[in-house]
Input
Amino acid sequence: MLYVIYALDAPEVAALRAASRPAHLERVRALNEQGRLVLVGPMPRIDAPSLEAGVTGSLIVAEFDSLEIARDWMAHDPYVKAGVYASIDVRPFFRVNP
Output
């Protein structure tokens, strides 16, 4: 089943995010290599074509065997361990289109 992970950054965590980014991306790459990743990316702070103003969080849509497994996967993310996120919401998701 698919799950959406919606995580909002804590205030003033740009340095923590940058330091943890390589390890975070490695975990995301692993999901992609396993064919479980549907969508992933940061949410920009402002409506702009670049991330120069920073980000406010992350969105991941991926396949996991259960909600518990999705939550556990996220609990071990480097951004979580570094304290980047102020809140994380993991929910089941039905893909309708395309």
Remarks:
- The mean pLDDT is 94.
- The two ends are 16 Å apart (CA to CA).
- The CA atoms of residues 2 and 95 lie 8 Å apart.
